[in-house]
Design a protein that fits this description.
Length: 243
């Protein structure tokens, strides 16, 4: 059924809900839920305040939507996972650092988007791997230096993995360029046997993709703007579960 134009206009011009208005007020007046730590100058959640995870996630989203800078100072309010619960968060275009991400990872996240977060580096990989059992979806976009540039005799090769997220279902890694390291992506995906969705758009030097044949649950594969895919045709033809 095609929606009539006047119905679309009515929907777009609908007034904001009471919840939306309240959330906007809160993020513009953080003193309603926070105080300032006199020693660190970070935001600190007021004692006795507890809200469900859905509200905290909306506060995080609206805070960015209203033009506020999402940084370590703000995410400090999520320092105590017993009073603030988060499951699904997007840090896209934020200025958060490894320290801020470490605070958020204590929440046992199941979905994490760190697209275009230029202050997140390889130092966060340790924290992600420590909390990796709960993670189901991970987006690592452009400008994020999460993954290492390494040689085969590095610690990652010795331990047998780069990313330790055994229950991960969806992984997006965009524009990761690794020159002259043919086994890199094989090691990156080595332990991710439960993947159903994989996006490697813009990544370079993926090799023949034969390592994808080990991902038995994979049904969605995106290889947009990946060079030399002709070298991987044989492997791609073996991925019979792709939709």
């Amino acid at each position: 059924m095609t929606m009539l134009p006047f119905l679309t206009v009515c929907k777009d011009s609908a007034p904001e809900t009471l919840l939306e208005l309240c959330l906007k007020y809160v993020v513009d007046h953080l003193d309603t839920i926070c105080c300032i730590d006199p020693f660190t100058n970070d935001y600190k959640l007021k004692d006795g305040l507890a809200l469900p995870s859905e509200i905290w996630e909306k506060i995080l989203h609206v805070y960015q939507q209203c033009g506020h800078i999402l940084d370590d100072r703000f995410v400090n309010i999520f320092k105590n996972p017993h009073t603030t619960r988060l499951q699904r968060i997007s840090l896209r275009n934020s200025s958060i650092t490894n320290d801020g991400l470490r605070v958020l990872l204590k929440q046992k996240l199941i979905e994490l988007n760190i697209d275009n977060c230029s202050n997140i580096t390889e130092g966060s990989l340790v924290h992600i791997n420590k909390s990796g059992d709960c993670l189901l979806s991970l987006i690592v976009g452009s400008s994020v230096r999460l993954f290492p540039y390494f040689h085969l005799h590095s610690v990652y090769h010795r331990q047998g993995y780069i990313l330790r997220t055994p229950n991960l279902r969806r992984l997006t890694v965009r524009n990761l360029v690794v020159h002259g390291e043919k086994m890199y992506f094989s090691l990156l995906l080595h332990s991710l046997h439960n993947l159903t969705y994989l996006d490697l758009s813009g990544c370079f030097d993926l090799g023949d993709l034969s390592y994808l044949c080990e991902l038995r649950s994979l049904v969605s594969l995106i290889l947009y703007n990946v060079k030399r895919l002709q070298d991987a045709i044989g492997s791609l033809c073996k991925l019979v579960n792709l939709r």
